[in-house]
Every structure is written in C-alpha cells, then in structure tokens.
Amino acid sequence: MASEPTHATSTSPHDPTDVIVEHASASAADVAAAAATAREAQRVWWSQGAAKRAVALDGAAAALERIADRAVELVIREVGKPRLEAAGEVARTSAILRYYAQASFSADGATYPPSLGGMLVARRRPHGVAGLITPWNFPLAIPIWKAAPALAAGNAVLIKPSPDAMAGADLLAELLAEFLPAGLFTAVHGGAETGAAVVAESDVVSFTGSSAVGRAVVVDAAAHGVPVQAEMGGQNAAIVLPDADAARVAAMVAGAAMGYAGQKCTATRRIIVVGDGTDVVDALAEAVQAMAPRDPSEPGHAVGPVINAASRDRVLAAIWAGVAAGGRVLAGGPDAAVMPSDGWYVHPTLLDGVPTGHPLSCEETFGPLAVIQRVATVAEAVELANSVRYGLVSSVHGRDLDSLLACADALHTGLVKVNAPTTGVDFYAPFGGDKDSSYGQREQGTAGIDFYSTTRTIAIVPHG
Ligand code: NAD
C-alpha cells in the first residue's frame, strides 16, 4: 500500500491559499499511545459517576456558547458553510452537549424476576475507548453527536476527523480539555492509515462518511471484533405529488438540494415529479438559478463553495456526464456564473432527462447537483425512489393524506419527511438509514447511549 502524506493540511475552500491548520499525520504508534492514555483516563472518568459526566458536558456546552462567534467564523472559513447555517451548527452542537449532559442521569439498566431469590439486574457499562471517524461537512455537530453520548455513557474518545475539518475537531478538544480528565478526548489527525489505526485501537467504532470508506471501516472493525456503526451516503428523493403547491415545494426542495452547496448527506438529489408537474419544474428551475454561490461569510444566502478541488472537479464532471447522456440543463451548468473568488465554486445545477439508470441518477455526487425525474403515478414514484442502493432519507410533498401516508409507508429510507425538506435532523430522535446508507445501530437520541454501552447481567443470590 502506498504510504500516506506525512502531513495533513486544512485550507479554506473560499480561498485555498488560506491555510487553517496543518498537522503531522499520526502514525499507528502515535494512535496506540493516545489509546493507552485514553484507556487510563476512562477508568477515572467511569469511576467518578454520572454527576461528574453531566457537569463536564454541560460545562463544555456553556464554554462553546461563550466562544460561539469564534466557532461560527471557523466553520465558515474551514468548510465554507454559509453564515446562517454555520451559526445553526454551533447552536445545535451546544444543544447536543446539554442533551447528553442530562442523559448521563438516564436509567442505566433494568431488573428481572430472580430465579434464585435476591436480584437479577442488567446494567449498562461503557465499552472503553470509542473510536470516532468523522467527515468534514458538519465539523462540530457530527463529532459531538458521537462524542457526547460516548462520554455520557462513560467512554473515552479517540477522534479522527477529516483532514478538511481538523481545526473544528481541535476547537472541540480545546473546549472539552477544561472539563475532562487529561487524555479522555483526543483528536488524532491524518488520512486513511490513521483512521485504520483508530479502528485497530478502539473498543467501539462509529463512522460517518462515504459508503465506500464506511464499508471498509465496518469490515475492519468486525475483523477486530468490536461493535461498529456507520452512517454513509444517500441519493435522496423528494416526491412531488400532483396536488402540491408548486411555489412552496420549489422553494423548499431547492433549499434542500442546493443549500450548503448540496453537501449534506440528507440533501435532495432526485426530484420525482408525479403527473404533468410543469409548474413545479419551472418554479424549481427559477429557484435554483437564483441560488448563485457567494462568499460564505456574507450573510443572507445559502450556497458557498464545495469543499476542495477534487470535489469541484467531480461535480463538474458529473454535470458534463449528465449532459452527454441526454440531460438538459434547467438551471446552473458547468460555466454558469462569475464566481466570488478563486475558490472551489460550482453553480447549483438542475438537470432534466438524465436516464434513470445513469450513475448521476443512482450514485451520490455530493455537491450542488440534482435531477428531475418524471413519472405518471404515485406507485411509479415510490418504485423509482426505492430503486437506488441507498436508503437514507426521502420526502413527499402534497395535500392528499392517503397518498402521503402510502408513500411514507412504502419508502425504503431510514427517515421520511412529509411536506418537509429531506435535510434537517432532530438530534434527540433516532437517526440513520437503510440499505447502503447505514450499518449497525442508529445514532443520536437515546440510541446513542445504547450504542456506546454494553449490558452486564448480574445475579445476586442471598447467602445461606
Ligand atoms: P470520506 O468517506 O471520504 O471520509 C470520512 C472519514 O473517513 C475521514 O475522516 C477520512 O479521513 C476517513 N477515512 C478514509 N479512509 C479511511 C479508512 N480506510 N479507514 C478509516 N478511516 C478512513 O467522507 P467525506 O468526504 O469526509 O464526507 C462526505 C461523505 O460523508 C458523503 O458521502 C456524505 O453523504 C457522508 N455523510 C453521511 C452522513 C450521515 O449521517 N449519513 C453525514 C454526513 C456526511
């Protein structure tokens, strides 16, 4: 295997000459040393009890709120997230910390009728060291929606963030250090080799990222015999029924497809229009055309750059491939606009007429690109929505309750939104997909605590 670069560098997608942070890649030995320290710290952490864990997570939430402005600027600069969404992510991150601070006090087990008298108790315990491998697109919220339940359940955390979001993870490590035993939460930086070393050293593994990498991480964790969950890509459909309000749906779906330059796992990638749909397609084209990318630090807009040069090249190549396959550009296109800088910008693009079996229709591009697909009936819409290998989220829009409920029941996705965008996740409800979008237990909410703990059953029989 070719060895990895010795350093990882995070630069701004708006201004690629702006280096945000550079780290030497952590070697397998570095990761092993961090894991050994984490394992020691975890014993202390678990022995200190639930109140200590709650106070620490609550303290970290308050600390993040105190430096919220700095955190928002960092998210904008490091990953190009538009200002309003960056502020939303910072607020959500502290809300998640507060939620899991309280969850530290949740019931941690159950009692059963003892067969021999005394007590039969099943009690949750931490696994030990939780290895977290995270993507760049939610640089604060994703690390925390994994780390907070892991810590609340009594684990230590080793996190390997994306090389494109290292400064976000460093900020979290800095905040948490004030409240946690030394070495309990450690960010290790690097690429695939560092990530593989984290899997090798951990007692439980949680991954979020692409389906290809996630599958490899799942196999790797299974080979090491540790529990694993993986949240991966999507090719999410929005179904528009004939009785939907065209203007309302167009605004909502355009935002879900192109907001943050389409770089959310939950972004709408396919818009399946049932019936004539001329009004809604025209309104969508207009809405997407109006979403020209802008400098993410400017207020009042929803689309910034894509994360890096490879991502921009991938999106442009996908647009060209769609056009070559017979797709018609309804909005945007490869050379649609004057960009705000020499950063990695692509105009949000809507294509019509790309064949349903074409990779653009079936595979995730992870950028500001969506396709219109036309069908005659609700049944065809559901079949088309379900025809891809992914199953993360879908949405359905219209007024007729029977059709909405029939769709919600028949769609093979972990989340179904009715008259709501595919994007947007409630951190206190279970989150995860079906098929190639997810593996293992759900995360977030109480599902997070369940995943990061294991049950020990204890039978206590009276003596004599
Ligand atoms: P990615 O798969 O390229 O990388 C994710 C992480 O895995 C990074 O930290 C990377 O360094 C690490 N990694 C790469 N190879 C590895 C290996 N062999 N072993 C261990 N770790 C390895 O994903 P990305 O580009 O950072 O993020 C975008 C992807 O994430 C998209 O596919 C998107 O749909 C997905 N995503 C999913 C969710 C979800 O909850 N379902 C949320 C956000 C993003």
Query: Cofactors and ligands present?
Result: nicotinamide-adenine-dinucleotide
* Sheet with the most strands: spatial strand order: 12-13-14-11-10-16-17
Based on helices, strands and strand pairing, what is the structural class? Answer: alpha/beta
Number of strands: 20
How many helices? The count is 15
What is the first-to-last residue Cα distance?
63 Å
Uncertain runs with pLDDT below 50, 5 residues or more? none
Beta content = 15-25%
Helix residue percentage: 40-55%
Shape: globular
Q: Mean pLDDT, as a whole number? A: 96
Q: Note the main sheet.
A: 7 strands, mixed
Provide structural commentary:
- By secondary structure, this protein is an alpha/beta fold.
- The protein is built from 15 helices and 20 strands.
- It has a 7-stranded mixed beta sheet, with helices on both faces.
- Helix 6 links the parallel strand 6 and strand 7.
- Helix 9 packs across helix 10.
- The mean pLDDT is 96.
- Nicotinamide-adenine-dinucleotide (NAD) binds next to helix 7 and helix 8.
- Nicotinamide-adenine-dinucleotide binds next to helix 7 and helix 8.
